[in-house]
């Protein structure tokens, strides 16, 4: 199970624990009322066991919280459906994952993006994108549609220049130094990053490797308006739509922005990475 999915299950378990405590019931008392083994309550509350819909109904009934059943069941269904195996999702090739996202990108007015390893797709050059797609194509043993996927990704970048959208990016300094495609590709990609930063609708902050941090976020994520968060891991993708969890990511993003440098200081970090690449090429 990926960390985001585990966190979602733990959040559901924490909500159920609060309902139990509000009812002034011990875990053993609740288990007895529901006819369960006493360890089941603890496993559900800690996210190690996913409650079934009958479990949720019994839990709420025993705690006098029948009015929360429908919301909790909806949350449980969301947790189960948000886990998407990449191999299954991309079995027809990677281009599909690029084109499927277009409607979401088109209707979004505010993008908030945090990346900690590689640069976001909206900034990619063709060479940088191709190197990334080639890796995932081989790693996940997918049909080879690298060229088509690159073209779809570059086409999707038109949203940077159209409509009334705002883009806020926070990048770890590591994204400037992760070698994707070799020094020549990286030089072109960092030049592209500097060019995109000049757009009035785009804000780019970079968190220096040795800087003061106000948030210890562990994984990259994208926030679309205030309605959806997308998190990606090696084997799966996670879509988060529960308002409380979206708000938690928005809070984390604000703290990440506070940790980052912007403007001339951000450009200086990019120029430094470019200078080091130039030295490697000589």
From TrEMBL:
Name of a matching Pfam family: DUF5753
Domain (HTH cro/C1-type) ranges: 16-69
Family matches, as Gene3D superfamilies: lambda repressor-like DNA-binding domains
Organism superkingdom: Bacteria
Protein's name according to its UniProt entry: Helix-turn-helix transcriptional regulator
Naturally occurring in which organism (per UniProt): Pseudonocardia eucalypti
